[in-house]
């Protein structure tokens, strides 16, 4: 996908990776609508960048109505619809075995990291189908979406789930102009990283922010990628995680192809895609 003159929606764009990506896309001529739960951070960022090609949308990503409003906000601001959606917003474990205060059946980590991500992906796919246009979705997992995290099991579980979501939508949409990919970076120096995690990160090595951003740009610009997971590790650089590792996985994918093609045809008809 060409970045220049496109419209990018970034969930979690007021700090860390999201802010760095927003700035990189603006530098390349994109229009950016970025969200965040902190009104103060969003307004401060708007004051610092001072461009009509970027707008802040105050949004708790778990608020479905606020997510839906992003698309109309983008159209009003830029006179055209969203071309790409990048989901970055995420949190660490909101409780644990000894601080088990989330007793109402919901866990904030799961709500933010995966439930809201599923909603963001659904809204984006529905939007691209209605518009009948090419679309790009990038989800953000973590190195802990590929490995276990004994001190952050909910975080790791949610990041594993994001990879499953990405691969599944990639398979479903491979016959369309809609691409869904995922980035899984190792440790980056952001406000999310604190305490004991910093010790681990220091031992393994940090990833430069610019390397991480190059990963997002690659997933945006390479139209040949769909359902792919791009991991970024210190020392190893970027790696597209292999797909179809064994005969069983290949066979399973082949058997689902006909039903997948039927489902895509049904979706196009439902959303009146000509």
TrEMBL record:
GO terms for cellular component: cytoplasm. It comes from the Eukaryota. It comes from Hesseltinella vesiculosa. The keyword Oxidoreductase applies. The keyword NADP applies. Keywords: NADP, Oxidoreductase. This is NAD(P)-binding protein. One of its GO terms (molecular function) is oxidoreductase activity, acting on the CH-OH group of donors, NAD or NADP as acceptor. Gene3D superfamilies: NAD(P)-binding Rossmann-like Domain. Belongs to the short-chain dehydrogenases/reductases (SDR) family. PROSITE patterns: ADH_SHORT.
């Amino acid at each position: 996908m060409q970045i220049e003159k496109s419209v990018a929606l970034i969930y979690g764009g007021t700090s860390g990776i999201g802010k760095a990506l927003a700035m990189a896309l603006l530098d390349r001529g994109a229009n950016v609508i970025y969200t965040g739960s902190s009104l103060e951070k969003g307004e401060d960022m708007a004051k610092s960048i001072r461009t009509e090609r970027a707008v802040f949308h105050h949004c708790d990503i778990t608020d479905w109505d606020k997510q839906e409003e992003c698309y109309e906000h983008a159209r009003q601001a830029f006179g055209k619809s969203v071309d790409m959606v990048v989901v970055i917003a995420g949190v660490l474990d909101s409780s644990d075995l000894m601080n088990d205060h989330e007793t109402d059946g919901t866990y904030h980590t799961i709500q933010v990291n995966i439930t809201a991500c599923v909603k963001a992906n659904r809204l984006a796919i529905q939007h691209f189908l209605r518009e009948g246009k090419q679309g790009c979705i990038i989800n953000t997992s973590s190195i802990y979406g590929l490995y276990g995290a004994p001190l952050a099991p909910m975080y790791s579980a949610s990041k594993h789930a994001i990879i499953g979501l990405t691969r599944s939508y990639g398979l479903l949409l491979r016959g369309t102009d809609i691409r869904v990919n995922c980035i899984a970076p190792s440790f980056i120096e952001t406000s999310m990283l604190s305490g004991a995690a910093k010790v681990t990160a220091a031992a393994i090595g940090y990833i430069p922010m610019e390397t991480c951003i190059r990963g997002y740009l690659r997933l945006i610009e390479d139209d040949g990628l769909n359902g792919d997971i791009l991991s970024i590790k210190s020392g190893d650089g970027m790696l597209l995680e292999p797909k179809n590792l064994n005969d069983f996985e290949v066979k399973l994918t082949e058997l689902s192809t006909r039903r997948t093609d039927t489902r895509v045809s049904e979706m196009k008809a439902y959303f009146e895609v000509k």
